[in-house]
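Minutes, project huddle
Topic: does the predicted pose make sense with TZP bound?
PN asked that the exact inputs be recorded in the minutes so nobody has to dig through chat later. Recorded below.
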Amino acid sequence: MNTLKLKEWLKLYFIMGSNNCTKNPAYILTEAIKGGITLFQFREKGDHCLLGEHKYALARELQSICREYKIPFIVNDDIDLALAIQADGVHIGQDDEDIQKVRNRIGNMLLGVSVHSYAEALSAMDAGADYFGLGPIFPTNTKKDAKPVQGLSFIQELRRKRIHIPIVGIGGINPQNAHLVMDAGADGVSVITAISKADSPYQAAAELKLRTNLDYQ
Ligand code: TZP
Ligand code: MG
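Predicted holo structure (tokens), as shared on screen:
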């Protein structure tokens, strides 16, 4: 897909599942969109997550909100779900289905891959990844099996090694530190709790938007 358009989509990348919310997920997503998020990932996993038809129903509900506001809707891990509801893309990690197989299954849909080393980055690119998720950049309590904190250095390393594929940072990102992620060479920031658990998801998204756009002015 068009790289410039993809980079626009990745600027403020909001991720959420029902267990990341203290308020209604549809309300949070709508507020986040009004605040300026540019892409949404449905990530229904971990303790007390929805399964089966309940997961499917929430996916459809959130997807229809994204469609109304023309925000791309990406599904984490669950390729069957993504295909069943014709999502705009999928995001997978290194422990999920083989990247090349996923690419073959999803055709032209957007494919994001989490990478933690230069070697993983090269093979994900070869297998057809459209963008990388790099993290955790800062400490986070949201992902129980997160790898050690990488800080900003891995983003800088990939850029130094002339990896030009779009990159989003993830993990512990908030309005105060988001600009550091952009300065390190990322195209966008991904956040869960900074928006999903904010008193005002609208305001949290708007503040993040302001910070991530600074370097483009
Ligand atoms: N992958 C690496 S860290 C993380 C994921 C899914 C969790 C990010 O959540 P938060 O709340 O934005 O720190
Ligand atoms: Mg995964």
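Observations noted during the meeting:
- The radius of gyration is 16 Å.
- Residues 167 and 186 are 5 Å apart (CA to CA).
No decisions taken; revisit at the next huddle.
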